[in-house]
Amino acid sequence: MLLAVSALAFGVNSVNAQGFATEKLNYRRPTSIPFPDDAPYSPQMATLGKMLFFDPRLSGKQNLSCASCHNPSFGFEVPVSGAIGATNKPLARKAPTVLNAAWLPTLFWDGRAPDLETQAMGPITADAEMDGKFPEIIARLKGTPEYEAWFGKLFPRDGVTQDNILTAIATYERTVVSGWAPFDRWVEGDATAISPAAQRGFAVFTGKGQCAACHTGWNFTDNKFHDLGVQTKDIGRAAFEPDNPLAKHAFKTPGLRNLTYRAPFGHAGQFANLDQIVAFYETGGIARPSRSPLMKPIRLEPQEREDLIAFLHSLTAEQTRIALPNLPN
């Protein structure tokens, strides 16, 4: 019955309807969160990490926390092109989301961090971001009885250390997973979970729109780096792959979950909304030697464009209520 509905909705015949149903399954959600062997999940560790994630005592002036740039209300981003850091100036790049980071093989727009522990250290210690100094942070946490007790229980060998702070934060961040969206219910067999427009939009996404060339899998990212032909002076991934001609101006493909909360879009927040970024993709970007060969001009009809955006909206789960932790005094 679902197959027949899909075929009818897309105007496809029974031969390629089976292929379309298979394509849907490529976006099925995983059933568990991957944790590294040397940092397994425990609710106590995640709770400690959550407290640290929201605690401004990790910043130099004790006025910024990880959540200052990764706010749950905005898809674990912030709704500005560059979050305000320790220097009271906007940062050069938009804060990428923490959502579904447990599945990411590298972190940051340029992929410079190999894991969440390394990623957590970057913003905490960067002068322009949180401007924290770990000797000072450790002293503050050790001077807080409840933190001292938490670390003593979870890390009985050495208590409050830089590595243990980062392990706790990373454990919490791995639990930050986007909720079930209408699209997920559709993939699992509920033919009415998303609108006919969104279903047509999925066909555009995986077909004519060529979006699925980079936005693959359940988190809608290939985890690779591409120059989209955006006007920018930022060399992106080339800072780490100087000999790769395609790395210049290349940035990591962002996942598309919970997009409704995450505008503006782009590595520097260049696009105010989904309409703008879809319009940009249609142009194929600026032609230059580093531009990804996957970026090619396309021409969508007005209805196809509306359908594509309807599909993108179907990737957003209902806003999850996240209780702020009670921080130790």
Topology record:
Blueprint: H1 2-10, H2 14-25, H3 43-53, H4 66-69, H5 116-125, H6 134-142, H7 145-154, H8 162-174, H9 182-187, H10 196-206, E1 225-226, E2 251-252, H11 274-283, H12 302-313
Helix pairs in contact: 1-2, 3-8, 5-8, 10-12
Overview of the structural elements:
With 329 residues, this protein is an all-alpha fold. The protein contains twelve helices and two strands, in the order ααααααααααββαα. The chain has helices at residues 2-10, 14-25, 43-53, 66-69, 116-125, 134-142, 145-154, 162-174, 182-187, 196-206, 274-283, 302-313; strands at 225-226, 251-252. Helix 1 (2-10) packs across helix 2. The longest helix has 13 residues, at 162-174. The chain is globular.
Label the overall shape: globular
Radius of gyration (CA) equals 21 Å
Distance between the termini: 58 Å
Number of helices: 12
Strand arrangement in the largest pleated sheet? 1-2
* Biggest pleated sheet: 2 strands, antiparallel
Descriptive key words:
329 residues; mainly alpha; two-stranded antiparallel sheet; 12 helices; 2 strands; 36% helix; globular
Quick rundown:
This protein has helices spanning 2-10, 14-25, 43-53, 66-69, 116-125, 134-142, 145-154, 162-174, 182-187, 196-206, 274-283, 302-313, and strands spanning 225-226, 251-252.
